[in-house]
């Protein structure tokens, strides 16, 4: 691990100011992904700003009838919150499908959004990776790509976002709130939060240098039956091959977002509109233009079947 | 060519040893001139409570909580397995919650209360979970065991506190103290010897959970 300076910030403004003072600084919250990458010298911040004392660790009701989730709410606390369990069960289910108990106890809401890909070529510093070392090439495209993206990718990068929580948040139309290094705040729809890899796969989100996530806001509860269906190589503690976040209403309408297939939770409102016509119709619209590798072509049929299973789960729950 | 004398061989050896030494000097010079010079280590003080004892020490900021426990406090019960949060051997209980101590910086734990396997029980006064692991033979080599036990103690607290898991059928009801709940919650602790069946027996014994099949 490279040496770094360390300070604890006590207000969001102080954290932003510290980031402005220290080019190359990173915020650290749970640290469960950042420290892993620092040990491998994939992340080499010169300075860490500990944001754990910022007080952004509560879940509050909004005037609109939704929830504002502080950036530092731990995954365990968010999944276990009674309001989330009752009104946003999709979010609880997605969180509980991710990582291990130890990791969920430390991992935060904002950190989960910002975790890096688990592409094996990103992790292997002996291999080319445009995300880790821009311009070095993509080892994955013609290499071991079974876990990687089938849509939304570019010639330069086929990495997937590894998270479960963001897939549920995408289906729920969550909004990310931030404060910038200049003190200005902004709201970003989760669906607009992640950048397509294009020819700059090292840029993963719309966040500017020093911009800090303060909260994620959920709109009022949507009701319906909510199902998170994750398909993975082990029954527990593994990243998704594909995952499906589904909200199905009594009239057959609903929303669907899919994880494990792209650089972000994959959702298309025109695919939502196909829900009354079943999984095949939704998958056809959702994955129109997909370009899988030979290794991960199976994800197309796996996603459709996972969606069919999620629809069956939702219909069974209403029976 | 005349054969080399013993003196000449020794002299040649000394010369080549000198020649071998030269490139490493050159490499050091190159490293110093490289565009990304190494940053000097930064040291910082941190104060925390470990197993009921206040400790305050100055550490390199890169020191993980795991390395602080093992290398600075000589609490070697907590084990370093993968050092990347994948195996659970380093599991300790911090402020009442189990975490991977390898993925937490020591300096992030200012004011924290840390409990390690040494703080749960002693050879003469075992924690009930330690006693149950002995009774049920919940290990083979024993390397993952401190992490398994710290995790298991916290798992039972999590179930009692009503925290749901991936296998909890009804999110609005308290989770059951049952085998499938325990198995799912222990998935962050790997055992390469494969003592899982006996580990589960030990945890169920402490939990007072309904036993699977006949209790032999």
Description of the structure:
The complex is a heterodimer of chains A (319) and B (216). With 319 residues, chain A is α+β, with helices and mostly antiparallel strands. Chain A has helices spanning 12-21, 34-39, 75-80, 82-87, 89-96, 101-106, 109-114, 120-123, 165-171, 190-193, 269-272, 279-286, 298-318, and strands at residues 5-8, 25-28, 47-50, 59-61, 67-70, 175-179, 185-189, 212-218, 225-231, 242-248, 254-259. In chain A, helix 5 runs antiparallel to helix 9. The termini of chain A are far apart. The model of chain A has no long low-confidence stretch (mean pLDDT 97). Chain B has helices spanning 6-33, 65-72, 117-120, 128-135, 145-160, 179-185, 196-207; strands at residues 43-50, 53-60, 91-94, 97-100, 113-115. Chain B contains seven helices and five strands, in the order αββαβββααααα. Chain B is an alpha+beta fold. In chain B, strands 2-1-5-3-4 form a five-stranded mixed sheet. The radius of gyration of chain B is 26 Å and the shape is globular. In chain B, strand 1 and strand 2 form a beta hairpin. The interface between A and B is large, with 39 and 44 residues.
Report how far apart the termini of chain A are.
55 Å
Rounded radius of gyration of chain A (Å): 19 Å
Please state the oligomeric state of the protein chains shown.
heterodimer
Mean pLDDT of chain B: 86
* Low confidence ranges of chain A: none
Judged by helices, strands and strand pairing, the structural class of chain B is alpha+beta
Instruction: Please estimate the helix content of chain A.
Output: 25-40%
Order of helices and strands of chain A: EHEHEEEHHHHHHHEEHEEEEHHH
Strand % of chain B is 5-15%
Q: What Rg of chain B is obtained from the alpha carbons, in whole angstroms?
A: 26 Å
How would you state the average pLDDT of chain A, rounded? 97
Largest sheet of chain B: 5 strands, mixed
Low-confidence runs of chain B:
6-34
Task: Order the strands across the largest sheet of chain B as they lie in space.
Answer: 2-1-5-3-4
How many helices of chain A does DSSP assign? 13
Major sheet of chain A: 5 strands, antiparallel
Distinct helical segment count of chain B: 7
